[in-house]
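Before a colleague's protein record goes any further, I have to sign it off. Thanks in advance; the entry in question is below:
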Amino acid sequence: MKISDVLSLQLTNCQLPGRSKKRILENISQMLTAHLGGDGEQSETLLDNFVAREKLGSTGLGYGVAIPHCRTAGVKKIYGCLAKLTSAVDFDAADDEPVDLVFALVVPEEKNDEHLCTLARIAAIMQDEQSRQSLRQCNSDQQLFDTVIALERSTR
């Protein structure tokens, strides 16, 4: 599954605010819920799912990158949300570095293979120093979206 299959411009944010991991996850939950046409209750459920997944182990990869993900009932396909944060936050990453790039995934409960494939594609991009640098230089949602799609094409 390609990043372009799960990410849209509407789920790309070049200036996502938040001063804590929980606030970032809350903002991402609200973005995703709004995109899916949900309500506040669904946003809370999504946030709870992200927080529960983080309790199993941080999704902070290191190098200022996190890939929070969770399984959620009621979604039919995988949705991604890419954000460049307005300020780096502690995400309990293995390298203890704060996170400023977040690529979140919401996955239907039955899509395990697609989930793993999508995580691998995102990780391949985010683990590359030049790719991270390119994403950090973006100044608009459109530029951030176009950059990650181009990076995926160049890493195949």
